[in-house]
Amino acid sequence: MQESDYSRQTHHEFEAASRLAMANASLQHALGNLGQTLGRRNRDAFAAYPDSDAQRDRARQIKDATLAELDRHLETLEASIVGRGGHVHYADDGEAACRIALEIIQRRGAKHVVKSKSMTSEEIHLNHALEAAGVEVVETDFGEYIIQVAGHRPSHIVAPALHLRLHDITEILSRDAGRPLPAEAEGLAAYARERLRGAFAAAEVGITGANFAVAETGSIVLISNEGNARLTTSLPPVQIAIMGMEKVIPRLADLPVFLNVLARAATGQKLSIYTSVITGPRTADELDGPEEFHLIILDNGRSKILGGPLRESLFCIRCGACLNACPVYRSVGGHAYGGVYSGPIGAVLTPLYDGLAANRHLPHASSLCGACQAACPVRIAIPEMLITLREQLHHDPGSKGRLESLAYRMWAAVMGRPRLYGWATWLATRTVGRIVRQRWLRHLPGPLAGWTAARDFPSPAPRRFRDWWHEEQA
Amino acid sequence: MSRESFLARVRAAAAAGRAHRVFAADKPLPPIAPSRTAAADLVSRMAAEVDLVGGHSHVVPDAPAAARVLAELLDQTAATKALCWRDPLLERIGLTELLRQRGVQLLDYDALVREPVEARRPLILAAEIGISGAAWAVAESGSLAMASGPGRERLASLAPPLHVAVIEARQIVPDLFALFVHYEGGALPSNLTLITGPSKTGDIEMELTTGVHGPGEWHVVIIDGAST
Q1: With contacts defined as CB-CB under 8 Å, which chain B residues touch A183?
Q2: Which chain A residues contact residue B201 at CB under 8 A?
Q3: For residue A362, how many C-alpha atoms fall within 13 Å in the half-sphere facing its CB?
């Protein structure tokens, strides 16, 4: 794998990509402070919010109950949106969603699309589909714009350009501007503002994701700090929102619960700067806002997850808190995970969406320390889900070598027979335990060498516990 | 066609998934604790939170004092075009007169609706200051709730680099739960936006930069009749 491809490729081996990431000094610097910035802000914000435990429990329980009757809530959402003059489309997969979006755009004869940040649109590779049809798509979130110009994939759910440093971004945007830009954040942001104001002024269609959808009112909720999601839904005459079907919540009264935990989890803010509750197109006498409102509801593998043991992964509200909390993410960054979603939740979602066999390293890309679950605003049991995926990998005969299978069978045979176990431990203490006489083995031989490549193995004691016990009793 | 098969698939999956529910179906939701902000503290809490998120709060006793704050801001920015709401509170302050005295062009609903549709967007994007009221304010987070409608344009609080909102103390509710109660039962406008600070981004090395798309400067004038 070429290093230059690393931030662009969508599929690659986690281990090889991680090695590159660990050796990338610039990336390591970019990741270096994550635990002390976003990670700490998450903990401080929850600690400072007296009601946060009850609200997180409440959010979790609402998700659980909503998914149990998801079909009914989707039908309610559809009826509410149609009642407010909007349109609802159902897309079985990413291809269908792209086709629906393109049809809406082409029916308007539109050529210029502005987009606000949406992980769901990344998931279905929407930009690629639209550009292939000759439609100009401009990402308007500052971070997304930077990586769109650079041709990178987002490396973090809420901070897509996290892997880049100031000098990288200066170089990327200077090339875009055709003139050298100053290497300071204010000036670069000012350039992006001007450049993107031009795109907003010309845009005929605005595409957004949706953080939530409220079934009873027919509203979608968009959250941003920059205001680009608001411009995207105020200036162009058409809005297309694309949403994974699990994003629906039943009642307007449920919304404050999620708003209270989402921004605190993501950035430590009480609320993000802008939270828009959008209900249908503008009314006839309004001067701004879209005349035409479309919501595309996406399945793309979610219904398969919904009926199974990993259904809890659909509770995710895409805040990115588990990434900031994770020692593995903070070491390798988002691109190493290969999928659109990275970090602990990505290690669960990518195997589910993209296939377990093709992503067999991801369930193991965790020390199961539980920091992700502690940071999660809806307390998703990510470590448990990773263990479930490891179990599924274990039961898949194609996923491990014959030697490994044999080793596990022998291990099980010994552990299940007390006499055999006694003999094996006697042998270990009398050989390695008494002859090698080291507390830690630095190198194991043959196929076991992989274990000691990154850690030491405790050496057997010179005396078995059960021998010591008998002597003590005597 | 695809709608029916989509929903049928979701129905079957949701039913199968019930075996994996985390909570018992009849478990009551954990209760929401009532807000800890006392009614008497709403104005001071609101003002403090606005300042905390990087905005500027101005607590004034009456409409003439609010007019003086607005006049000062207009003079500081030397604005030539103001994108304004048509709002009874702004009328009471005498906004139209304030703008006329300073030769600032008033872009409000009545002015914009006279323009052809294609001319409105460039006019709106050229405004240097946005002046609005708000539907409600949320003390706990320092947020303004902006309900869209004719005369209450979304872009007034968004497109210009400076946004000033004028509210009255009685519009302040303690928290988000108290806010959304006002919109239950189908009363939502086409756009209800909560604003909690000036526009920000942290996309360059987590360094906070203001004003990347929305206003970089955000003022909230609170007319607190009780403070006189």
Answers
A1: none
A2: 142-143, 189, 225-226
A3: 34
Q: How do residues A74-126 score in pLDDT, each as one tens digit?
A: 999 999 999 999 999 999 999 999 999 999 999 999 999 999 999 999 999 99
Range B109-117, long-range pairs (CB < 8 A, 24+ positions):
B109/A287, B109/B150, B109/B151, B109/B153, B110/B86, B112/A287, B112/B153, B113/A287
- Contact, A74 vs B8, CB < 8 A? no
CB contacts, 8 Å: B13 with chain A:
70, 303-304, 306-307
| Phi and psi based region of residue B41 (left: phi greater than 0; alpha: psi -120 to 50; beta: remaining) | alpha
Give A455's DSSP letter.
Answer: S
The pLDDT assigned to B68 comes to 97
Mean pLDDT calculated for residue range A219-233: 97
* CB neighbour list of residue A4: distance below 8 Å, 6 or more residues apart: none
Among the partner-chain residues A33, A68, A286, the one whose CB lies closest to the CB of B149 is A286
Return the bridge partners of A274, or none. Answer: A224, B195
Cα atoms in the Cβ-side hemisphere of radius 13 Å centred on B158 = 30
Query: Taking Cα atoms as reference points, which of B199, B202, B203, B198 lies closest to residue B218?
Result: B198
Q: Is A159 in the B-facing interface, judged by CB distances under 8 Å?
A: yes
Mutate to test the interface with B, among A87, A92, A208, A230 (most CBs of B within 10 A): A230
Q: What does DSSP say about strands B143-147 and B136-138: parallel, antiparallel, or unpaired? A: antiparallel
Q: Which residue bears the tokens 């090395």?
A: B205
- A387-426 residues labelled b (16+ CB within 10 A) or e (exposed): ebbeeebeeeeeeeeeeeeeeeeeeeeeeeeeeeeeeebe
Instruction: Give the nearest partner residue to A235 out of B16, B22, B121, using CB atoms.
Output: B121
ipTM above 0.90, yes or no: yes
Question: How many C-beta atoms lie closer than 10 Å to residue B90's C-beta?
Answer: 24
Q: Measure CA of the first residue to CA of the last residue in chain B; give whole Å.
A: 65
Residue (of B108, B167, B115) closest to B139 by Cα position: B167
Residue B1 has pLDDT above 90, yes or no: no
Per-residue pLDDT reduced to its tens digit, A118-134? 999 999 999 999 999 99
Strand A112-115 with B191-195, pairing = unpaired
> Looking at residue A125, what is its pLDDT?
94
Residue B203's pLDDT is 85
A166 part of contact set with chain B, CB < 8 Å: yes
Give the CA dihedral B77, B82, B85, B87, nearest 10 degrees.
70
Least CB-CB distance to A288: which of B154, B175, B198?
B154
Rounded to the nearest 5 degrees, what angle is found at the Cα of A17, between the Cα atoms of A14 and A23? 135
